């Protein structure tokens, strides 16, 4: 399909620079095949059914953005995928100043050698020393806010909490699974009282999620791989819910992509551990999920293509037009949508 089909005009002022407070007071647009309803996230228990199951991504964002020097050149790096105990693939700013083997000094006693430049322009960074890389990043790194936020304001201390979900447990993401940012303990308790349970899986979100689609046709776009895991107990639980007539509702496109990667043509979700580069566009047949809660996405993005695959392109263009007209807040710190096909 032509990428132009997934374009829409978004006023810059609709981009949220801070999350709603409290988190569950964010607005929520409920989208079904025949209706649009303006709600808030706290209304979620009334929008779901007893026996439904919400699936959250428990990845934890690491301080994956680094600023350093190589000689007199300033080098910026955003880690996006772990390749080994001390080796991360990274998108690098000012990469033309690097050669294989160059040592980048990130300050605070943190340095890494640049290795193996890939066709997409990324470099592998091999961190020096014996300390765990996680400790090095805590010293020298900062929270990797999306470019559409970081380009409008500086990262600050609030983001260390604001950009982590309440489920964050498994370190390794360089972007938050932002749909889950709306959840609070009180909301989870209200959902449980309504008979809606939850489960978790892990997908370490990479910086590739922010890369623009440069191809003219979706068939020519290639996704960056991300590592994920669904254990056997969670897979069995999801299958049991569906067999009993409940719905599996993914919270976030990351949860959805991993469930769909683990689901077979028979609709059975199986344990999964490894990389996924699944790219979902209209025409895709969903096998493992029955709905999605997600934020509002960039024009021409793979994520807007995904929600259009779930609900239909015309339906999502109408939903986004409604959201823009009604002053919904967009992107990572913005409002939510609940998509029920």
From TrEMBL:
<keyword id="KW-0671">Queuosine biosynthesis</keyword>
<dbReference type="InterPro" id="IPR036100">
    <property type="entry name" value="QueA_sf"/>
</dbReference>
<keyword id="KW-0963">Cytoplasm</keyword>
<keyword id="KW-0413">Isomerase</keyword>
<dbReference type="GO" id="GO:0008616">
    <property type="term" value="P:tRNA queuosine(34) biosynthetic process"/>
</dbReference>
<comment type="subunit">
    <text>Monomer.</text>
</comment>
<dbReference type="Pfam" id="PF02547">
    <property type="entry name" value="Queuosine_synth"/>
</dbReference>
<dbReference type="GO" id="GO:0051075">
    <property type="term" value="F:S-adenosylmethionine:tRNA ribosyltransferase-isomerase activity"/>
</dbReference>
<keyword id="KW-0949">S-adenosyl-L-methionine</keyword>
<dbReference type="InterPro" id="IPR003699">
    <property type="entry name" value="QueA"/>
</dbReference>
<dbReference type="GO" id="GO:0005737">
    <property type="term" value="C:cytoplasm"/>
</dbReference>
<comment type="pathway">
    <text>tRNA modification; tRNA-queuosine biosynthesis.</text>
</comment>
<dbReference type="InterPro" id="IPR042119">
    <property type="entry name" value="QueA_dom2"/>
</dbReference>
<comment type="similarity">
    <text>Belongs to the QueA family.</text>
</comment>
<dbReference type="InterPro" id="IPR042118">
    <property type="entry name" value="QueA_dom1"/>
</dbReference>
<keyword id="KW-0808">Transferase</keyword>
<comment type="function">
    <text>Transfers and isomerizes the ribose moiety from AdoMet to the 7-aminomethyl group of 7-deazaguanine (preQ1-tRNA) to give epoxyqueuosine (oQ-tRNA).</text>
</comment>
<protein>
    <recommendedName>
        <fullName>S-adenosylmethionine:tRNA ribosyltransferase-isomerase</fullName>
        <ecNumber>2.4.99.17</ecNumber>
    </recommendedName>
</protein>
């Amino acid at each position: 399909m032509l990428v132009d089909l997934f374009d829409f005009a978004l006023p810059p002022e609709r981009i949220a620079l801070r999350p709603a407070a409290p988190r569950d007071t964010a607005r929520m647009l409920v989208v079904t095949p025949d209706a649009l309803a303006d709600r808030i996230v706290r209304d979620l228990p009334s929008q779901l059914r007893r026996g439904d199951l919400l699936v959250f991504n428990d990845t934890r964002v690491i301080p994956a953005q680094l600023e350093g020097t190589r000689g007199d050149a300033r080098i910026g790096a955003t880690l996006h995928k772990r390749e080994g105990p001390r080796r991360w693939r990274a998108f690098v700013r000012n990469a033309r100043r690097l050669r294989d083997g160059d040592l980048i000094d990130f300050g605070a006693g943190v340095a890494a050698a640049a290795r193996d430049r890939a066709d997409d322009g990324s470099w592998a960074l091999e961190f020096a020393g014996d300390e765990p890389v996680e400790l090095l990043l805590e010293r020298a790194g900062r929270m990797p806010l999306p470019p559409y936020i970081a380009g409008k304001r500086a990262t600050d201390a609030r983001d260390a909490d604001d950009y982590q979900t309440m489920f964050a447990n498994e370190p390794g993401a360089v972007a938050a699974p932002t749909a889950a940012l709306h959840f609070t303990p009180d909301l989870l308790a209200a959902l449980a009282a309504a008979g809606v349970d939850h489960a978790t899986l892990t997908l370490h979100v990479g910086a590739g999620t922010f890369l623009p689609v440069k191809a003219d046709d979706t068939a020519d776009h290639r996704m960056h791989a991300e590592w994920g895991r669904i254990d056997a107990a969670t897979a069995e639980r999801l299958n049991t819910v569906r067999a009993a007539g409940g719905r599996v509702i993914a919270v976030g496109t990351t949860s959805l992509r991993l469930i769909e990667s683990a689901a077979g043509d028979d609709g059975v979700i199986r344990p999964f551990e490894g990389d996924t580069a699944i790219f979902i566009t209209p025409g895709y047949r969903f096998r493992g999920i029955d709905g999605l809660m997600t934020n509002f996405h960039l024009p021409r993005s793979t994520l807007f293509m995904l929600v259009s695959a779930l609900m239909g392109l015309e339906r999502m263009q109408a939903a986004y037009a409604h959201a823009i007209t009604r002053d919904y807040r967009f992107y990572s710190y913005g409002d939510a949508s609940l998509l029920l096909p």
